Amino acid sequence: MDIAQAREWIEQARSVAVLTGAGISAESGLPTFRGPGGLWKSFRPEELATPGAFARDPKLVWEWYSWRREVHSRCEPNRGHVALAKLEQLKPQFTLITQNVDSLHERAGSRKIIHLHGSLWRVRCMSCGKEEQNEQVPLDPLPPRCACGGMLRPAVVWFGEALPQAAMAEAMQAATAAEVFLVAGTSSMVYPAAALPHVAMQHGARVIEVNLEATELSSLAHISLRGKSGEILPQLASP
Ligand code: APR
Predict the structure, then answer these.
(1) Ligand 1 pocket member 23 (CB < 6 A)
(2) Whole-number Å distance between alpha carbons of 159 and 166
(3) Tens digits of residue pLDDT in 88-124
(4) Which residues touch 232 (CB under 8 Å, ≥6 apart)?
């Protein structure tokens, strides 16, 4: 019943917005953050994903991000990513908002993407501020340097840092305009991203969640579907 209802709501909607988290990339072989085998189970975010950690030991932080880039470079998009790229083609108004720093949505064919937490494949100079794409694997030397001589940092959002303002404003806009707000593979614990489904609901959207397990959002969502996003999203995106 729930999948059929969710599919019907998505089919009827002209405007759809989607929020994804690490769970959508789990079936591609990428670890999540808080689930079993999650990154924060074996690594301490305060030692690797904060401006303070980078100031203390930029080489250690880069060694971790360089490892993550190598792991990511061996992964392929899965059926969940592909289903969302397909849904984008079907909807006149569609926005994909991701917390993920991988590029699997792009590689699956999604175009209308907002990266709230930056990208593993972009770097920013600590001196001149220039930001650019960098897909070199492995990265050598560490820490990498900008043409200006300044030290480069991963262009991702670390704990304690603000999200890119333009990206957050665009995401808020998409949430307020959505008739259906789909949430897939996120624990809905990290704000301000986790506020988006609530904003959408306040503006009349139907909120549909897809997750292996119950989250902070499950009791509030209109429909909360339990299972793998790679199995459920194709069923929701097929007309
Ligand atoms: N299909 C659907 N959901 C899944 C799957 C799957 N195959 N595998 C895992 N999940 C779910 C988990 O049950 C969990 O609720 O995905 C969620 C992943 O949650 P987190 O590990 O907390 O990742 P995320 O929500 O993306 O984290 C948010 O926190 O660490 C920071 O900046 C980082 O962007 C990240 C943010």
Answers:
(1) yes
(2) 19
(3) 999 999 999 999 999 999 999 999 999 999 999 999 9
(4) 3, 80, 210, 225
Atom of ligand 1 nearest to the CA of 188: 25
Q: What is the pLDDT of residues 171-208, one digit of tens each?
A: 999 999 999 999 999 999 999 999 999 999 999 999 99
CA distance 179 to 94: 10
Dihedral of CA atoms 16, 17, 23, 28 in degrees, nearest 10, equals: 70
Contact 120, 72 (CB under 8 A): yes
Alpha carbon distance 21, 114 (integer Å): 12
Closest CA to 229 of 32, 37, 33: 32
Q: Dihedral, CA atoms, 66, 136, 71, 225, nearest 10 degrees? A: 110
202 alpha carbon to ligand 1 midpoint, in Å?
24
- Examine the residue annotation and report whether 203 is marked as an active-site residue of this protein: no
End-to-end alpha carbon distance in the chain: 16
With 0.90 as the threshold, say if the pTM is over it: yes
Per the CB < 8 A criterion, the answer to whether 167 and 181 are in contact is no
CB 122 within 8 A of CB 133: yes
Nearest CA to ligand 1 atom 29: 190
Query: Tell me, what DSSP letter sits at residue 151?
Result: B
